[in-house]
């Protein structure tokens, strides 16, 4: 996995859930928090949002929204752009990775993890029984 290995407990939880929802799958596959899935979904509805706009919409502190956005960007689920302000300076705007791309990223991430687990299984020898 590129960033870190997902929490195995989350995969167990996902497997026993007969109908996991979008948020549960994102949490498990990307090893993120529920508030980060909320931030992603809000970005899908409100592309090119600023941290201040997202903080207001999500009713969260700006520093927490910033951390969520950093995580989403690290996972490939959001992008940051810069908009110049009329009076000088700039503001960052964030846009979610489109859902079809995010779903493909979910598949790729899960496939990488599955390949890793298969390779670990293949490495087990008689000493694993001791």
From TrEMBL:
Q: Which InterPro entries match?
A: ArsR-like_HTH (IPR011991), Tscrpt_reg_TrmB_N (IPR002831), WH-like_DNA-bd_sf (IPR036388), WH_DNA-bd_sf (IPR036390)
What top-level branch of life does the organism fall under?
A: Archaea
Q: Where is the Transcription regulator TrmB N-terminal domain?
A: 29-83
State the protein's name.
Putative DNA binding protein
């Amino acid at each position: 996995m590129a960033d870190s290995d997902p929490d195995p407990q989350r995969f167990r939880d996902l497997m026993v859930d007969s109908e996991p929802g979008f948020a549960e799958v994102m949490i498990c596959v990307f090893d993120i928090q529920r508030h980060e899935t909320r931030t992603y979904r809000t970005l899908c509805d409100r592309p090119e949002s600023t941290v201040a706009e997202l903080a207001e919409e999500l009713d969260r502190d700006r520093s927490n929204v910033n951390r969520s956005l950093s995580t989403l960007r690290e996972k490939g689920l959001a992008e940051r752009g810069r908009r110049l302000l009329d009076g000088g300076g700039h503001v960052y705007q964030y846009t979610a990775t489109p859902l079809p791309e995010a779903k493909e990223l979910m598949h790729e991430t899960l496939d990488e993890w599955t390949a890793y687990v298969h390779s670990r299984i293949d490495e087990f020898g008689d000493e694993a029984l001791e």
